[in-house]
Amino acid sequence: MSPDSHPSGCLFLVATPIGNLGDLSPRASETLKDCDFIACEDTRISAKLLNHLKIQKKLISYREENEKTKCVELATQIEAGQKIALLSDAGYPCISDPGFRLVRECHKKNLKVIPIPGPNAALTALAASGLPTHQFTYLGFLPKKSAQVMKILETWKEYDGSVILYESKYKIEKTLSTIMQVMGQERFICLARELTKSHESIFTGTVQEVAKRQASRSGKGEFTLVIAPSGYSFS
Ligand code: SAM
User: What predicted TM-score, i.e. pTM, was given to this entire model?
Assistant: First the structure.
């Protein structure tokens, strides 16, 4: 459905590339062209995408720090007839990114929410991992404190599905070592790094093998981890 077929206000949740700009869908591009304005996390990052698409559109900052108040304001504008596209810096809005509060506010006011699906790091990593996909859980970013991380990993240690995590370059080695400590060095995991980018690397092996490989590389990049189900062997 094109934005023009929605005469009254609505919120478009527009997925954007996690690296490769070619992954932006024609529907996403059309929506960005046709909406009234764009609410986005970092206006500088979204401006780059819009420049690439040769689209000129007003950008409003909607980020973790202001989302509680901004979501009410944006929903009021949608109620008044505005068509707003929500973008995160990369991937799907709302998934470890701001958006949930605005979507909830729209539902409360009975306003139309239209998802424009596309790239997402978690599902891309899971599909490429070679690990079971019949059942999985998404934990997003683990907390900073080691004790909390260990507690969460203990909770999922015996889970019969794959576990997806996001991790930063600053903590990746520490997290691999904690997984080894809690789940054992033979646990299979996939480390998906820089998905869809020129230095993409997707490596599945025991956590010991993955940690060794990671230690020999530069720590740069964006990382998604997939932990295999309990008792899973890659053979
Ligand atoms: N909303 C986004 C999505 O749908 O994927 C996720 C946003 S979250 C703030 C960003 C995290 O996603 C990064 O720190 C990294 O863990 C993961 N990520 C994003 N892009 C990635 C990529 N190209 N390769 C691997 N992981 C990526």
Answer: 0.95
Q: Whose CA is nearest to atom 19 of ligand 1?
A: 121
| Strand spans (E) along 20-122 | 37-40, 59-61, 83-87, 112-116
pLDDT, one tens digit per residue, over 142-199 is 999 999 999 999 999 999 999 999 999 999 999 999 999 999 999 999 999 999 999 9
β-partners of residue 225 are 165, 191
Q: How many CB atoms lie within 10 A of CB 97?
A: 18
For the CA of 125, the nearest atom of ligand 1: 25
Domain at 121-227: CATH code: 3.30.950.10
Q: Is 66 helix (H, G, I), strand (E, B) or coil?
A: coil
- From 21, 224, 225, 226, give the residue whose CB has the most ligand 1 atoms within 8 Å, as the site to mutate: 224
Low-confidence ranges of the chain (pLDDT < 50): 1, 4
The pLDDT tens digits for 173-185 are 999 999 999 999 9
Which ranges in the chain are annotated with CATH 3.40.1010.10? 3-116
Domain 3-116 - what CATH class? alpha beta
